[in-house]
Structures are given as structure tokens and as C-alpha cells.
């Protein structure tokens, strides 16, 4: 084999390793378009986008965490708490609509800061710190709401309306993706995240303020989670106490499927976006094919397992 042919083969292999989720998404779309003629209809494509939006927004925040080699199990509960604080402070406390919107975002930001402080200064493992926060946030949501939905103001509900042909949740998803891309690829904070995920000790010895960066990372994750919670609240015009249940697993899956490594140091907004779309397309396609929701959970689990296995293979290939 000539040097040029060998180089081309290696380039194709590297491209496939780095874009496996995109290839899988394209193949899946083709298969579903053949299996269900209504799959590629404009209405259904918009529906897929709306279904992907909430998980994608949470997953963009999760990307920051996973890039640093951490994990955040609290995002689903924090999303519910952010939406509930915004709705409850308007419907029960009578606060102005714009202030309730700010309160929702600040709730997520504060939750993320608490998680970051626990990890950076309390030396708690990220798994334990965010697992505890998940329980606390879910409990606070139930205490505040007393287990009942709370009506939300127009200052929140506009996130669930349409802007021309596009629903606002899709626009919010795209904006969140652009912010994630900008932070990771165009800021010192983003480069520091990759450095910490690549080698924590080396990052610390090089003079990076690791503790402050970790607090910022989890604060961003909480902020994005609250953003997603407000979008969920807007779609229903009310905050639900059990909203966001299980979304942390979908968000982690989207990030990993999109090419991020659970060991840190690799990941990006584009991959996360593709991963979230892939999950939404799978669920939408299985619904169109009248596949039981029980089987859908099995399929999603197999996809996650395959994504993690693919990550292991990719790491071995890179190491070689």
C-alpha cells in the first residue's frame, strides 16, 4: 500500500471515529424516511426539533462538565426547580413577571455554584455532590409546589410560542448551542476546561485557577438546566413538580454519543447537538412505527452502551 493511500485510509478512519454520531444520524434518517413516509414531513421535523430542544439545552451545559472530566446528575431536578421557582413566585407570591424569569435563572446558577463549591473546596466526588444536589433540588421543588403544578407568567410562556415558522424551543436550543460553542472554542475559560479534563494535575501545576474554573463549569451547567426548565414550563404554561425526571441521563447520553469522552478532555457543542438530535430521532421514529415505549427504553439503553463502547475504541485508537 502506497504512502498516499495509507494516509487517505487513516484520514477516513479518523473522520469516522470523530463523526460516528453524525453518520449514524444520517443513516437513521434515511432508514426512517423509507420506513415511514410521514417522517420527513415539515410538521414532524419541527416536532423532532421541539422534542430535542430541552434535552439539548441541558446537554450543552453538561458538555462543559464532561469536558472537565466531571459529571452532573442534578440537572433534571435543577431544571424542575428553576421552572417551579419562576412559576410559583408569580402565581403565589405576586412578583413581577420579569423578576420571576430572573429568579428561575438565578436558581439554576446558585445550584450550580453550590455543586461547584462542594467539588472544588469540599473535595466531594462530582458523582456524590451532584447526586445529593439532585435529591435536594427535587425535594425543594415538591416542598415549594406541595406536589401541585403552578401557573407561569407570560414573561416565561413566550419561550414556548412560535417565531414565524419556528417554535421558540428550537430557537432557544440553537442559541444555547452557539453559546456553548463560543465558550468552548473562543474563550480562555473553554480552553481551561479542556486542559483540566486532559490532565488535572498538569493544569494545576501550570497555574490555572482550577477551583474557580470548576465552580464556573458547574454554575454554567446549573444555568443551562434552569434555562431548559423554563422552556419546559413555557411549553405547558405551568411548572410541573416532576418535570425533568430522567433528563440527566438523556443529557449525558447526548454528550457521549456526540463524541465527548467521559474521562474528559474532549467534546464540543456540535457533537452534543448531533447526539441530542439522534436521541430525539430515535424516539420519534419508534413512535411513528408504533413501537412500545418499553422497547424504546431498551433501544435507547443499547445506543448509550454502544456510544460508550465506541468511546473506548476511539481512545485506544488515539493512544496507538
TrEMBL record:
Reading the lineage from the top rank, the first entry is: Bacteria
Q: Which Pfam families match?
A: BPD_transp_2
GO CC terms in record: plasma membrane
Transport found in the keyword field? no
Q: Where in the cell is it found?
A: Cell membrane
- Tell me the GO molecular function terms: transmembrane transporter activity
Q: Which keywords fit this entry according to its UniProt record?
A: Cell membrane, Membrane, Transmembrane, Transmembrane helix
Q: Which CDD domains match?
A: TM_PBP1_transp_AraH_like (cd06579)
User: Could you list the residue ranges that cross the membrane?
Assistant: 21-39, 45-66, 97-117, 124-144, 164-184, 213-232, 269-288, 294-313
Keyword Ion transport (UniProt): no
What membrane topology does the UniProt entry give?
Answer: Multi-pass membrane protein
Record-linked InterPro entries: ABC_transp_permease
This chain belongs to which protein, by name? ABC transporter permease
Q: Which organism is it from?
A: Corynebacterium uropygiale
Amino acid at each position: 500500500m502506497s504512502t498516499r493511500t495509507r494516509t487517505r485510509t487513516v484520514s477516513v478512519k479518523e473522520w469516522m471515529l470523530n463523526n460516528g454520531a453524525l453518520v449514524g444520524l444520517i443513516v437513521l434518517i434515511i432508514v426512517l424516511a423509507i420506513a415511514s413516509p410521514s417522517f420527513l414531513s415539515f410538521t414532524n421535523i419541527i416536532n423532532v426539533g421541539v422534542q430535542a430542544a430541552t434535552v439539548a439545552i441541558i446537554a450543552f451545559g453538561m458538555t462543559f462538565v464532561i469536558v472537565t472530566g466531571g459529571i452532573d446528575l442534578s440537572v433534571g431536578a435543577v431544571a424542575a426547580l428553576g421552572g417551579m421557582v419562576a412559576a410559583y413566585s408569580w402565581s403565589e407570591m405576586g412578583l413581577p413577571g420579569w423578576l420571576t424569569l430572573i429568579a428561575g435563572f438565578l436558581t439554576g446558577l446558585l445550584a450550580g455554584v453550590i455543586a461547584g463549591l462542594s467539588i472544588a473546596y469540599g473535595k466531594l466526588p462530582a458523582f456524590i455532590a451532584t447526586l445529593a444536589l439532585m435529591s435536594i433540588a427535587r425535594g425543594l421543588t415538591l416542598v415549594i409546589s406541595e406536589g401541585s403544578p403552578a401557573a407561569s407568567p407570560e414573561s416565561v410562556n413566550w419561550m414556548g410560542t412560535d417565531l414565524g415558522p419556528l417554535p421558540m424551543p428550537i430557537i432557544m436550543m440553537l442559541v444555547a448551542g452557539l453559546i456553548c460553542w463560543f465558550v468552548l472554542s473562543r474563550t480562555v475559560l473553554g480552553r481551561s476546561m479542556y486542559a483540566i479534563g486532559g490532565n488535572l494535575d498538569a493544569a494545576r501545576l501550570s497555574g490555572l485557577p482550577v477551583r474557580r474554573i470548576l465552580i464556573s463549569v458547574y454554575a454554567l451547567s446549573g444555568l443551562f438546566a434552569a434555562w431548559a426548565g423554563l422552556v419546559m414550563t413555557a411549553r405547558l404554561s405551568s411548572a410541573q413538580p416532576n418535570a425533568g425526571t430522567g433528563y440527566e441521563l438523556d443529557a449525558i447520553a447526548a454528550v457521549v454519543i456526540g463524541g465527548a469522552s467521559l474521562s474528559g478532555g474532549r467534546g464540543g457543542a456540535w457533537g452534543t447537538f448531533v447526539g441530542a438530535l439522534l436521541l430525539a430521532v430515535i424516539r420519534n421514529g419508534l413512535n411513528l412505527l408504533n413501537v412500545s415505549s418499553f422497547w424504546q427504553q431498551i433501544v435507547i439503553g443499547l445506543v448509550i452502551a454502544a456510544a460508550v463502547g465506541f468511546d473506548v475504541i476511539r481512545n485506544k485508537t488515539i493512544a496507538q
